[in-house]
Amino acid sequence: MFKSIVVGTDGSETASEAVRQAGELAAPLGATVEVVSAYEPVSQARLREESKVAPGDLQWMINPREDVDATLEAAADQIRAAGAEARTYARQGDPADAILDVAEELGADLIVVGNKGMTGAKRFLLGSVPNKVSHHAPCSVLIIRTT
User: Fold this and answer.
1) Cβ pair 31, 3 in contact under 8 A
2) Phi, psi (5° rounding) for residue 23?
3) What contacts 20, CB < 8 A, 6 or more positions away?
4) Contact 83/15 with Cβ under 8 angstroms?
5) Is the dihedral of CA 22, 27, 31, 32 positive or negative?
6) CB 88 within 8 A of CB 73
7) Confidence of residue 145 (pLDDT cuts 50, 70, 90)
8) Does an H or E element contain 70, and which?
9) How far apart are CA 113 and CA 131, in angstroms?
10) What are the structural domain ranges in the chain?
11) Which end of the chain is least crowded, N or C, by CB within 10 Å?
């Protein structure tokens, strides 16, 4: 049924619940969970400042997407703990576009996202990630109710 499941995460509680459920769905199916997180690069000025105070042996860790890498690894660990295979994708730019791009590139069977931001008038004014994904996905979408 599902062999490739894409899930987006930003490290929030809503995203963590989507990641948890994606892992639980994938494990008995033998599906791979493709974990996606979007980022805006850290400014060069901030990177230079952080490099000045970091010990020499840790400076390699300071990069434009250091925060997203940690978020992705935590999500991948959560999925592996559920018994599923996980691969991670850090993409620069809009979160919904990142999820949609990875799903399309991989020919995913399912996208899993949390529902945060989809209530009331905000969904019309702000264009939430789950709203955009649900309208433009190249495959089925599972929206996890977390609120």
Assistant:
1) yes
2) -65, -45
3) 78, 82
4) no
5) positive
6) yes
7) confident
8) helix 66-81
9) 10
10) 4-144
11) N
DSSP notation for the chain: --SEEEEE--SSHHHHHHHHHHHHHHHHHTPEEEEEEEE-PPPHHHHHHHHHHS-GGGGGG--TTHHHHHHHHHHHHHHHHTT-EEEEEEEES-HHHHHHHHHHHHT-SEEEEE-TT-STTHHHHT--HHHHHHHH-SSEEEEEP--
- Identify the weakest region by mean pLDDT among 44-48, 107-111, 119-123: 119-123
Q: What is the Cα–Cα distance from 34 to 103, expressed in whole angstroms?
A: 8
Distance between CA 43 and CA 57 in Å, rounded?
22
Indicate yes or no: pTM above 0.85. no
Q: Chain-centre distance of CA 145, in angstroms?
A: 17
Q: What is the pLDDT of residues 41-94, one digit of tens each?
A: 666 666 566 556 555 544 434 445 567 888 999 999 999 999 999 999 999 888
Q: Tell me the CB-side half-sphere exposure of residue 134, using CA atoms within 13 A.
A: 14
Instruction: Quote the CA–CA distance of 70 and 29 in Å, as a whole number.
Output: 27
For residue 76, give the 3-state DSSP assignment. Answer: helix
